[in-house]
């Protein structure tokens, strides 16, 4: 096997970011967000039906999750109807915020807002791919064009929320963050934040997905620290992680990422998730003791 043909697909920050190594432990729990109903469901040979999803949602609430991603309502009728039932049957506790996923595409964002009608507490999670490989090989767009997709998506979220007089929170992910040049990921995220202008009362979430785990955990930690130190509006931003387990290091990625400045982790129970799995929130939580 000619292993030399496989080049590194990750990028180190433009400046050294190793302050996280000075800490020997995590001194407070991050915010936990369950993505079992989205990434977890995608890992099942037979996806959950509507009633099973509702039962699982109730279990996640009982476990104690306060932020739960309920799916991608514009992607399928099942996920749309699931969210509508949660809202119309008043199944969402007052202290629980549901999170919905949408690509940064106008018709998908509009469909997502239709699905959210009547929801009291929601996070609208918008994303687009930013990695070097996807820019070059999939979208065939330059950096400015990719950034424009993110900004236009952020602007539409802001516009629809204001039109509907809602107070939804916003989340942005540079999908494939681990394959994106950190300084470019920062540029895109800051452009999105300039649209949203988060405040102390309405913080924005910037989520850094290890969509594909491309490096050892210390590299991810350095990337996270670079973002944490350089994001605009940092006091009003919740820096979130979404590790996958392609190299078997999802838990390490999350722990070192929290040491590096992250405030929040998205994961699943027991690591059940798409492809090689998501980070296991249960292991992460138990490791704090």
Explain this structure.
With 289 residues, the chain is of the alpha/beta class. It has one domain: Alpha-Beta Barrel (TIM Barrel), CATH 3.20.20.70. It has helices spanning 36-42, 50-63, 77-88, 106-115, 132-139, 143-163, 182-196, 217-230, 250-259, 281-287; strands spanning 31-34, 67-71, 97-103, 122-129, 169-175, 204-210, 237-243, 264-267. Strands 1-2-3-4-5-6-7-8 form an eight-stranded parallel beta barrel, surrounded by eight helices. β5 (169-175), α7 and β6 (204-210) form a beta-alpha-beta unit. The mean pLDDT is 97.
Number of individual domains: 1
For the report, how would you describe the main beta sheet?
A: 8 strands, parallel, barrel
Relative helix content: 40-55%
User: How big is the Rg?
Assistant: 18 Å
Topology (elements, then pairings):
Blueprint: E1 31-34, H1 36-42, H2 50-63, E2 67-71, H3 77-88, E3 97-103, H4 106-115, E4 122-129, H5 132-139, H6 143-163, E5 169-175, H7 182-196, E6 204-210, H8 217-230, E7 237-243, H9 250-259, E8 264-267, H10 281-287
Parallel strand pairs: 1-2, 1-8, 2-3, 3-4, 4-5, 5-6, 6-7, 7-8
Helix pairs in contact: 4-6, 6-7, 7-8, 8-9
């Amino acid at each position: 096997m000619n292993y030399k043909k496989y080049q590194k697909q990750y990028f180190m920050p433009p400046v050294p970011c190793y302050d996280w190594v000075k800490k020997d432990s995590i001194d407070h729990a991050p915010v936990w967000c369950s993505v079992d109903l989205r990434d977890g469901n995608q890992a099942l040979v037979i996806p959950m039906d509507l009633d099973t999803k509702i039962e699982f949602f109730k279990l996640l609430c009982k476990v104690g999750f306060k932020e739960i991603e309920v799916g991608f309502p514009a992607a399928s009728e099942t996920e749309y109807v699931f969210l509508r039932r949660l809202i119309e049957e008043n199944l969402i506790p007052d202290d629980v915020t549901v999170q919905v996923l949408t690509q940064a595409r106008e018709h998908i964002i509009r469909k997502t807002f239709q699905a959210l009608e009547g929801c009291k507490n929601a996070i609208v999670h918008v994303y687009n791919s930013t990695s070097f490989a996807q820019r070059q090989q999939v979208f065939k767009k330059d950096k400015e064009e990719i950034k424009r997709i993110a900004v236009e998506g952020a602007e539409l979220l802001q516009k629809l929320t204001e039109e509907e007089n809602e107070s939804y929170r916003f989340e942005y992910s540079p999908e494939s963050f681990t394959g994106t040049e950190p300084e470019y990921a920062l540029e895109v995220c800051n452009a999105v934040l300039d649209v949203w202008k988060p405040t102390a009362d309405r913080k924005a979430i910037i989520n850094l997905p290890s969509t594909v785990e491309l490096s050892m955990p210390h590299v991810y930690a350095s990337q996270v620290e670079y973002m944490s130190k350089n994001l605009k509006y940092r006091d009003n931003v919740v820096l979130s992680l979404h590790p996958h387990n392609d190299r078997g290091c999802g838990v390490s990625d999350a722990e070192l990422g929290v040491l590096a400045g992250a405030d929040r982790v998205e994961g699943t129970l027991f690591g059940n998730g798409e492809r090689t799995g998501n980070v296991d929130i249960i292991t992460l939580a138990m490791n704090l003791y």
